[in-house]
Design brief:
524 residues; alpha/beta; 11-stranded mixed sheet; 4-stranded antiparallel sheet; 28% helix; globular; Sialate O-acetylesterase
Length: 524
């Protein structure tokens, strides 16, 4: 073979290789692909039009059918190779199969129809039934016994991988897992107890979609657009993004401030005086406390999945900016609803428990969210705290109280009482103040003696420990140190120990009747 012939042969071979490679690439792109959450063992929301989505070759035609329905639905992948359809589901049941056909076929097996709840927040939602890798994940009360009897294969959990992302992610990693004694240790404890209550009372399968990360603030779970659209919150984004431009400089300043803090703390401890505030480290690009990064990586990829509602346990990481949370938390809830195109999406959450790092203001901000937004509900946990452990192990109490809201509002159990006494109004009566309450079902009760945690103040804004007595559905508060009272507070501190309940056995919500300046009010 001549040199020229050899060269021509080589070029033909290379050309053929490129053609084959291109064809192979086209074939790869043409394959129907599904997100991680749409897979074997999943639970879909019953009696609904659920969203299913995925990828294929641009312009590729697909058919989607389910074993519970006649016929199916069709889809065409758009120019980006993305497709989305609505599939009508029937009443709870299964297992079923779903078949996706394009240039290839995918069959999803063991699909249940039931109730799907999205479970999110920080470490108290992440806290598992069994011991975890972190030392604070020490398992629930009576851990071995609780795990051994957690045999509910129709309760299933999908846990999204912890991901920080600068941009909106298209997919996540994770798999559906049945609740059995072999798997239960890995389940979110709050989510498990919540699901167990719903399953036992309704008989419906329950799907739990869990997306959480310990030690994270609410702004991390809120979209960038939602933060920027709010005049009170956009500074969170601009401060963070400006900080990235000067990260090295800010890091050096932080190190100097931290060294000084260590020295000042040592001196304060020797002198038995108040410890100085610890300086905050600058937030880097790959930090899980950065605004909107967890929304991008852990909410956006699965927010299209149709759910019944949301349960949420977070707030501890926003306590140093607790007053701001009264705007941030409702903004996050509204944005999640808007992004899911469901303004009535049920959203039930847990008020932070007593702990030395918390304060009355963060609980008040959570209370404001409940009172200001429809289709929300709040669980009070003032009787489930630990002054030094921010992760109380009694997650059964939390999950079962969250379920009360679902029973009342979503499942038609009208006789269920979901909340303890909620402050409604006040009236000055000479040297005392009469307080009126909602959720007084079964009457107002004081456990273990006289009512505790009530304080009262006059025009001087100085609060004194008060005497409080129950009169019907009211509480009358007074103090010999306050002749003309104008304001009352209840359990409004970091570690309250109240004993005020209604007849349904649920604790009263901490509150204040005044609108005077409070701590963190100027911290943004």
């Amino acid at each position: 073979m001549s040199f020229n012939q050899h060269k021509l042969s080589t070029l033909k071979t290379a050309f053929a290789f490129l053609i084959a490679l291109a064809c192979g690439t086209t074939t790869a792109l043409a394959k129907v692909k599904l997100p991680a959450i749409i897979t074997d063992g999943m639970v879909l929301q019953q009696k609904s039009n659920v969203t299913l989505w995925g990828w294929a070759s641009p312009g590729e035609k697909l058919s989607i059918s389910a074993s519970w329905m006649k016929g199916g639905v069709n889809a065409i992948a758009d120019a980006k190779g993305e497709w989305k359809v609505k599939l009508k589901t029937i009443a709870a049941g299964g297992p079923y199969t779903i078949t996706f056909k394009g240039n290839n076929s995918i069959v999803i097996n063991n699909v249940l129809l039931g109730e799907v709840w999205f479970c999110s927040g920080q470490s108290n939602m992440k806290f598992t039934m069994g011991k975890g890798t972190a030392n604070w994940q020490n398992g629930v009360n009576n851990m071995e016994e609780e795990i051994a009897k957690a045999d509910y294969p129709k309760i299933r959990q999908f846990t999204a991988k912890e991901v920080i992302s600068d941009t909106l992610s298209k997919d996540t990693e994770g798999h559906w897992m049945d609740c059995t004694p072999q798997n239960a240790a890995q389940f979110s404890a709050v989510a498990y107890y919540y699901a167990r209550e719903i399953y036992k009372k309704t008989g419906f399968p329950v799907g739990l979609i869990c997306s959480y990360w310990g030690g994270t603030p609410a702004e991390s779970w809120t979209s960038r657009n939602a933060l920027l659209a709010n005049d009170d919150l956009k500074q969170i984004v601009t401060r963070y993004e400006d900080g990235l431009q000067h990260f090295d400089e800010l890091t050096q300043k932080y190190k100097a401030a931290y060294n000084q803090w260590q020295q000042d703390t040592a001196v304060a401890k020797k002198q038995h005086v108040k410890l100085p505030a610890k300086p905050a480290a600058p937030i880097g690009m790959h930090s899980n406390v950065a605004p909107y990064k967890l929304y991008n990586g852990m909410i956006a990829p699965i927010e299209a999945y149709t759910v019944k509602g949301v349960i949420w346990y977070q707030g501890e990481s926003n306590a140093t900016r607790a007053y701001q949370y009264r705007k941030l938390f409702p903004a996050m809830i509204k944005s999640w609803r808007e992004e899911r195109h469901d303004t009535n999406l049920p959203f039930y959450f847990v008020q932070v428990s007593p702990h030395y790092t918390e304060n009355g203001v963060i609980r008040e901000s959570q209370l404001i969210a409940w009172q200001s937004l429809p289709h929300t509900g709040m669980v009070v946990t003032t009787d489930n705290g630990d002054s030094t452990n921010i992760h109380p192990r009694n997650k059964e109490l939390v999950g079962s109280r969250l379920a009360l809201w679902a029973f009342k509002n979503e499942y038609g159990f009208k006789d269920v009482v979901p909340s303890g006494p909620l402050y409604k109004s006040m009236k000055a009566e000479g040297n005392s103040i009469r307080l009126n309450f909602d959720y007084t079902d079964g009457g107002l009760k004081a456990k273990d003696g006289d009512l505790k945690e009530f304080t009262i103040a006059g025009d001087d804004h100085v609060f004194h420990t008060a005497q409080a007595r129950i009169e019907g559905n009211s509480v009358v508060v007074s103090s010999p140190l306050v002749a003309k009272p104008v304001a009352v507070r209840f359990a409004y501190r970091a570690i309250p120990l109240p004993n005020f309940y209604n007849g349904a056995g649920l604790p009263a919500t901490p509150f204040r009747t005044d609108n005077w300046p409070v701590e963190t009010q100027n911290v943004n």
